[in-house]
């Protein structure tokens, strides 16, 4: 269905180039629902493929002193967007809401303090109860071309749990 609509629009390009260019789109509830389902699948796929950058830093921790830390090799292992909706906002655009979302990731951690004490391992992070809402305006600029902007955006996190696993080294000789 999507491909047929796209091909139909492409077929109209020569006509619009020779006359007053423009396309009018009429959104229906059925069309919005189809777009929501397709969009949620794409968002989940994109989230799973995100490369999370490594980061490190130094913090002063009383009474230990300076602690160096790093988080590396982080990747998303699970993501869910079970509740979502897209609604028209008359005269403005659309509102996208995602609720009860969750995301799990894991990676490696390393710390060093007192210049001689080092520790490292892996971690698992689970974030639950994510809610995200955004309103996107679709208006025309001074030339009549469509302009898209974000009117509002909010997010909340229900809970986050981190499990640190320590690497154990066998110091006995065999």
What descriptive keywords fit this protein?
174 residues; alpha+beta; Bactericidal permeability-increasing protein, domain 1; seven-stranded antiparallel beta sheet; disordered N terminus
Biggest sheet, in brief?
A: 7 strands, antiparallel
User: H/E series, N to C?
Assistant: HHHEEEEEEE
- Give the structural class: alpha+beta
Low-confidence stretches: 1-19, 170-174
Number of helices, counting only DSSP H or I runs of 4 residues or more: 3
CATH homologous superfamily - what is it? Bactericidal permeability-increasing protein, domain 1
- End-to-end Cα distance, whole Å, is 67 Å
- Beta-sheet strand percentage? over 45%
Helix share, percent? 10-25%
pLDDT averaged residue by residue: 82
Q: Give the CATH class.
A: Alpha Beta
| Number of discrete domains | 1
User: Radius of gyration over alpha carbons?
Assistant: 25 Å
Shape category = elongated
| CATH architecture level-2 label | Super Roll
CATH topology grouping = Bactericidal permeability-increasing protein, domain 1
**Topology, number of strands:** 7
Tell me about this structure:
This protein is of the alpha+beta class. A hairpin with a 3-residue loop joins strand 1 and strand 2 (65-80). It has helices at 2-11, 13-18, 29-48; strands spanning 55-61, 65-80, 83-89, 93-113, 117-140, 146-156, 159-166. The radius of gyration is 25 Å and the shape is elongated. Mean pLDDT is 82; it is low at 1-19 and 170-174. The N and C termini lie far apart (67 Å). It has 3 helices and 7 strands, in the order H-H-H-E-E-E-E-E-E-E.
